Amino acid sequence: MWSGFAVVFEPQNLLWCLLGVTLGMLVGVLPGLGPAATIAILLPITYDLEPAPAIILLAGIFYGAQYGGTITSVLLRLPGEASTVVTVLDGHEMARQGRAGPALGIAAIGSFIGGTASIVLLSAVAPFVADFALKFGPAEYTVLALIGIFLVASLGNGTLVKGVAAAAAGLLLATVGSDPMVGEPRFVFGSDQLADGIDFVIVAMGLFGVGEILYNLEHRQSASADVPAFGRAWPSRLDWLRSRLAILRGSVVGFLLGVLPGGGATMSSLVAYAVEKRFAADPSRFGRGAIEGVAGPETANNAAATSSFIPLLVLGLPANATMAVLYGALMLQGVPPGPALIDQHPDVFWGVINSMYVGNLFLLLFSVPLIGLFVRLLKVRQSILAPLTVLITMIGVYSLRNNVFDMVLVAVLGLLGYGMKKLGFEPGPFVLAFVLGELLESAFRRSMRLFDGSLLGFVTRPISATLLALFVIAVVAVPLLRVRRHGHLDRHEVGRGGRDDAS
Amino acid sequence: MIAGIVVAALGLAALVLGWGLGFGSLTDPGPGLWPAIVSVVLVVTGVVIAIRRPDDTEPFTRQVVAVLLAAASLAGYAAVIEHVGFEIPTVVLLALWLRLLGAEGWRVTAVVSVVATACAYGLFISVLGVPLPHLIGA
Amino acid sequence: MQFTVPFPPGGSTDLVGRAVARAVEKPLGQSVPVANKPGANGAVGGKEVLASAPDGYNIALLVKSLFAITPLATKDQTAIDLDKLKIVGTLTTEDYVLVVNASSPHASLEDLLKAPSVKYATTGVGTGAQLSQALLFKSAGTNATDVPFDGGAPAVTALLGAQVDALAAAPSEVMQHVKAGKLRPLATFNEKRSSYLPDVPTVKEKGHDVVVDQRRFVVAPPGIPDAVAKKLADSFTAARKDADYDKFLKDNFVERWEVSEDEARQHIKDARAQYAAQVEKFGLRLGK
């Protein structure tokens, strides 16, 4: 482990780390252009590097992008990844109230603490945690996705029934593509382009970013009226007091859920948000610019980004698209990630892990001056900012598959986002349900095949049974008791009930 | 009212389109089961919304033309860049948004659209190497 | 120059593409950037190259399964016709290895086939991993259910966690777990034993006529001038001798497939006919 620090502190490796996090932050800020595409594009540069610096550089891009992504989520309402969607809810609201600085500041601090705590845990318990992740089979993912979808429906601030409708529409869009079990095309209309379904980033960019821009086109006059006053650039004492426990809880939630391949990072931010809403003295502040609603999820998604290295480095199993590209990079370096990595290439293993301490510190130091700079973006006139944002979004979306069809899709989904906003539907539940719907359906159908069509399988496996019991108590029983006591059920109580399963 | 009808109609449409997919059963689900469940939820929520008529929708104004034009410009942009490269369509797209949709002056329009296109070229093509179709240096 | 790899970055086809792109730069005398254009098992990127200018600057890496297996699972009227494409270089062949968890009670292929019920993971619908196992279990009369996952990594994860009983996957996806003692190889699906697993029998040796593999080759659009095609072909021939490329193949347990264009076409045509006949014979349904 200490040899890892020797690797990190070689001047050239510090430089690669710095370059990586800088690039990561840059692509994180550019909506649509994600870390997976960037790492793929930069792979050839690493051919001539030694394995340790190559992976230090590429890993830096990954977690650097997590920091950068927050900036566009808060300022422009453009979440680049599923795990930053919930940040938009309160983060963008804070920006509209002229509190973009504190929102970004607390996100940077939370990300630093969450990321660092996660590295410490990773160094200490990685092998144990990796084995735990393997115990999660289709049954456990089914229950996890079910919990997630119930949390999603209760997230918004509009009418509950509209939240459910938006989530259902998201679930429906997720079925576009080939059926996960038998390959039958669904709602594909004979198009190859849709055969593999629609990329999440296109849905998020369309519904949030482009939809918002189209909506503002119609409201140009009124939009210019509420340009937010440029407030303080850093969190106040009160902000910090409100956020510190959120950061602590977010670190734990993020680390644990991030280890799970397939939806772990998304679930972590969602659960962190629900937890904060539950612990808040006044849950009605959420969705209206509550700083804990930024601190919790942002801490959690960075902790999750770090712990998602565990399956890759310990088991050789990439947990998401970006990890798959990093896996490829290690293969091309002749350093196959997996159980043997820590013994055969300790310099790579510990070098990468320890470089994350340094990288996170770089990112925190960058964030301070950059936040001030980026917040000024909000001073640019909407009529100039909008076309530039749209252009960057279009190019970013193109880079996902290098495909112009995706640009058309984002325009169509932008119209959908505009229409939804006009009719009083929120994009948050739609987009998150889109991610979780895919997971729920395929995990449930895999479970049915494994259990020979018996639903009993869910209650005979210890982990899924435990999760299911917590879910039933929290989502069904507790709110029902409340209804009997108060004679009604409002959405905050559904939201509150939902988070118990995770605590 | 409209919101509810739209949601219910979407659910119905999905039910009709997904009818032939094969439902199977809950314990042996076919490709059509999950879309059908979701469609039914859509229809039910749509009806509830239509009945309750929550007061949170906005009327569509004449400005909707600008919105449609904007969305169409993006689709058009996507359609042409494969054939003529990204440089000229980008300048045109930005100019359209700045001048027509944004009501900026000609000078701002010209400067911003040309400079932004050059910056985008430098960043995405020269630095990041995104394989966008382009004319210059192709 | 643009080398289209119609698969997502980081996957096995992408890695082969990147390794050969790197090796072919010197003989071609120019840089060869890889562009990933994933979708529909390579059909999206493949069609794009098919429609591109036949000037030698647009080439793509395609796979055998797109022509030999995908048509069995989905009926696509607009599927690419291999006869229209020019093959400018054949590259690799990869076996499928049947593995079980090391804690599995099944010590041999015979044990597994005699099990009362087998749940096997596949890397997706219409893949060689699905076809190979479906044919094997069907021909042996085993009561087996396929459980498709979204690619190799999730399927391997499920087997490592003993969520499923068996899995067929490429050696590059499972060998490190075999070496670490977590997974046990039972058989391979090629004509001959894998040079990386000389002690593991083929299913054919064991009396089951199932041969499935994955091969990769480079194509150019139709109408490419002969001189240009020859330069490309010569460059790929030279690239295959590159030392780094050789090391990449060995590190990733990939074998060489270096034949003429005509042989390659015939091989894929034969494989397709054979798979179609076997699927018919056993009444298999890969797709719906």
From TrEMBL, chain A:
Signal sequence extent: none
All residue ranges annotated as the DUF112 domain in the record: 14-432
Amino-acid biosynthesis is among the record's keywords: no
Any Pfam family the entry gives: TctA
InterPro entries: DUF112_TM
Membrane-spanning segments: 13-43, 55-76, 103-129, 141-158, 164-182, 194-215, 309-329, 349-375, 404-420, 464-481
UniProt KW Membrane keyword: yes
Keywords: Membrane, Transmembrane, Transmembrane helix
Coiled-coil portions: none
PANTHER family per the UniProt record, alphabetical: TRICARBOXYLIC TRANSPORT PROTEIN (PTHR35342)
Listed name of the protein: Tripartite tricarboxylate transporter permease
Record lineage: Bacteria, Bacillati, Actinomycetota, Actinomycetes, Pseudonocardiales
From TrEMBL, chain B:
Record-linked Pfam families: TctB
Entry keyword Transmembrane helix: yes
Taxonomy, superkingdom: Bacteria
Keywords: Membrane, Transmembrane, Transmembrane helix
Domain DUF1468: from-to ranges: 2-133
Spans through the membrane: 34-52, 64-86, 106-132
Protein name (database record): Tripartite tricarboxylate transporter TctB family protein
Record organism: Lentzea tibetensis
